[in-house]
Automatic annotation (TrEMBL):
Domain of life where this protein originates: Eukaryota
Record protein name field: Phytanoyl-CoA dioxygenase family protein
Gene3D superfamilies cross-referenced by the UniProt entry: q2cbj1_9rhob like domain
InterPro entries: Phytyl_CoA_dOase-like
SUPFAM superfamilies: Clavaminate synthase-like
Residue segments, region Disordered: 170-195
Length: 292
């Protein structure tokens, strides 16, 4: 399958695009079961690598009673090979390759997490860009937005998901004074649609939104609305060290262990090799880790 070039055009212009059917029918049940297990394991306290209610970014407060995300679902200790199998599956890899405009030999394995509804606490993320400070002056913002990091991030919904809000096109331009005012507060928005230009993104089961992680976005989490959304990113090796800051802060020691490598098919192993090479080239460690 090659993806329609209009997807890439939309992604480049709007900063996001929705693509259906990236979960092969044969994989769906396996992924749902894996997701249920990962959620139960996290809520019971068995899985410590979680995004906790009260924290927007890492480090996440380990003492929080509730979680809005499960981190590192491909970790061998999770014991769910369905996740890595999907991450390296044909339809997904083809879509990513199309959006990055790269060859398969340039694809770099990165993060794979899951976004879930908190069990009993409403929570929200304030308006932000993942890799530009909220306080950045207009010039700094413009400069940061001009750098193409050669990576894509996505949310694939197993169940209907209306948590995410974005401002289309905002990945290319600094915030207007009004947008800046509404994204400089520490408080989550009372009504995200008050943000000029904002839209709510609704995914039907099986749909994927790919979004530039520097698009202005926020999210609201309702404990009564079931969410199990696969949240991942993949890079293109031509991005080199520009990808390091975002990726390596998440604690990836476990990805260098042979125990993890052994769970991957050949394509996955090749993608992982490129991540390790990138990490070694920036001479960094693999970030903090809550388990290792
Ligand atoms: O929940 C979402 O869909 C968005 C998550 C997000 O913005 C983030 O993790 O930075
Ligand atoms: Fe974000």
């Amino acid at each position: 399958m090659t993806i329609d070039t209009s997807y890439k055009q939309l992604y480049d212009e709007e900063g996001f695009v929705i693509i259906p059917h990236l979960i092969p029918e044969v994989s769906r049940k396996g992924l749902e079961d894996a997701a249920e297990h990962a959620i139960a394991h996290t809520r019971s306290g068995g899985w410590k690598l979680r995004r906790t209610v009260g924290s927007q970014f890492p480090p996440y407060d380990p003492n929080s009673p509730d979680a809005w995300g499960v981190q590192h679902v491909m970790h061998p200790d999770m014991g769910e090979p369905a996740f890595a199998k999907w991450y390296t599956s044909d339809p997904l890899v083809e879509a990513v390759r199309g959006l990055l405009g790269c060859t398969e030999d340039e694809l770099q394995m990165e993060l794979f997490n899951m976004l879930i509804n908190p069990e009993s606490h409403a929570f929200a993320l304030r308006w932000h860009r993942d890799d530009v400070r909220e306080k950045a002056a207009e010039d700094e913002e413009r400069q940061a937005l001009n750098v193409w990091h050669r990576g894509v991030q996505w949310n694939t919904a197993l169940y209907e998901d209306s948590c995410l809000y974005v401002v289309p096109g905002s990945h290319r331009t600094p915030r207007t004074p009004e947008q800046r005012a509404r994204s400089s507060t520490q408080d989550p928005p009372e009504n995200p649609l008050d943000m000029p230009g904002a839209i709510r993104v609704t995914l039907k089961p099986g749909e994927t939104v790919f979004y530039n992680n520097n698009i202005l976005h926020c999210a609201t989490y309702d404990p009564h609305q079931k969410r199990a959304t696969l949240h991942a990113c993949m890079g293109d090796t031509r991005g080199g060290a520009t990808r390091a800051r975002n990726i390596l802060q998440h604690g990836l020691f476990w990805m260098k262990e042979s125990r993890f490598r052994e769970t991957l098919d050949q394509r996955g192993k090749n993608m992982l090799n490129r991540l390790v090479k990138m990490q070694e080239s920036v001479n960094g460690d693999l970030g903090y880790s809550q388990v290792n």
